[in-house]
Amino acid sequence: MVQPAQSRTVSKTVNATWSRRALWAAIAAALAAFLGWAFWPKAVPVDLGVVSQGPMEVYVEGEGQTRVRDIYQISAPVTGRVLRIQAEAGDPVERGGTVLVVIQPADPTFLDDRSRAEAEAGQQAAEDAQAQAEAVLEQVMAEHKFARGELKRTQTLAQEGTVSKRALEIAELAAATQMAAVKSAEATLKVRTHELQTARAHLIAPTTSHEGGGDCCIEIRSPINGTVLRVLLESEGVVAVGTPLLEIGNPRDLEIVVDLLTSDAVRIREGAAVIIENWGGPELVGRVRRIEPYGYTKVSVLGIEEQRIDVVIDFIQSTALPQSLGHGFRVETAILQWKGDGIVQAPISALFRSRGSWAAYLVVDGRTRLTKLEVGHMNGDVAEVLSGLKPGARVVVHPGDRVSDGIAITPRSE
Fold it and tell me: What is the CATH number of domain 52-65+252-413?
């Protein structure tokens, strides 16, 4: 009876072992299934764009300012005292009729001790020279009077035949010589008198009133029909010759100057169409009139030195210039660089560099395909596709690090 009991015990042990193995096998299978499901590649959600065909334009953008085409700067033609300028910015002016500036002679300057002593000594010397000239004049006048008397007596004796003809001629020569001496002395006295006046003028104090007669002031009149743009000196004061006083011009004759990077300026041409916007009013149109030939260095707001060049833009004549637009307004311009029709174009956000060339992820049957592209012109939105994509194709825009060649994707937006 012992043998059957042992057999039953072994059978129970074997059954328990197989049950445990089956349980662990089931658990392992379930875990493998879960891991397979968890790590199975899933479709990556992406944004899609469509390759289109149609007209395309490329612009060079820049900021600029409006300015009056011809600005006239009125400057002081002489040194003097400018009376307070009554004109204000915005006042209309008439050519040859509107008095812009009145300039009076400036008061004399103060003299220091040395200068005053020199001026007083000069005045005293001039007075002494004048007195000397007066004395010389009196002397030669007396000699001339004597010579005239001698001439009369000689003439009387000559008529009586008492003296020779030569004696008469000598008397006439002496009278004429003394007459010339008198005139010379009179001229010398005038010179000394003027020198005295000059010496006294050096001592004129600043508080002395000016007595200039007809030379009291100069009036500067407007050279054009226009408007006062800016008054540079409002208050009365003494100015030197050439000092800017005010600016005038025609505010309806405007142009725009835009400073572009030299690398951008070489991409545009004179005569190119321009869109003018963000000045505070409706969009306007213009045309490039001139690209300045001389570049200059300008420091950007980031402290970087940049080579820039000025581009001058005219408003189109058919454009009605708004009355609110004036001199010195900030504007944003878009200058047409290139345009074409029937251009195959892809979203520029779908392009990236791959091994030295342009590429994009083309969507085919729900999977990505890395496609090499040949790209032409670009603007801020699209790029011209010369080869690699056809109109209607869908491409991944803004591809992230989860997007690679051959993966499954699911459209998030298009």
Answer: 2.40.30.170
